[in-house]
Amino acid sequence: MSRLRRAGRAAAAGAAVLLLRRRRRPAPPEQAGGGVADAGGAPPPGGRVLPEGRPDPRAEAGTAVCLVLAGVAAVAFMVLYGVEPDTQALGVALGACLAFLAAAAILAGKRVVVQERHVEERPPMADPAAERRAARILEEGAGGISRRRLLGGACAFAGVATATALAAPLLSLGPGAPRRGRDARGRWGAGVRLVTEGGTPLRADDLVVGSFVTAFPEGAEKEDIASPVVVIRVRPEEIRPSAGREGWAPGGIMAFSQICTHAACAVTLFRYPLFREPGPAPALVCPCHYSVFDVLHDAEPVYGPAHRPLPQLPLAVARDGTLRATGPLSGDPGPSWLLTDT
Amino acid sequence: MTRLALLALAVLALLAGSAAAQGPQKTAGPSGPQAAHDPAAVARGRALFALGCSGCHGMDGRGLPGEGPSLAGAGAAAADFYLSTGRMPLNGEPGSEPLRGEPAYPDAQIADIAAWVASLAPGPAIPDVDPARGDVSEGMVLFTEHCAGCHQMVARGGLVTRGLAPSLQQATPRQVAEAIRVGPYTMPVFPETIISDRQIDSIAAYTELTKDPHDRGGAGLGNVGPVPEGMVAWIAALGALLVVARIIGERAR
Question: What DSSP state is assigned to residue B185?
Answer without folding.
Answer: T
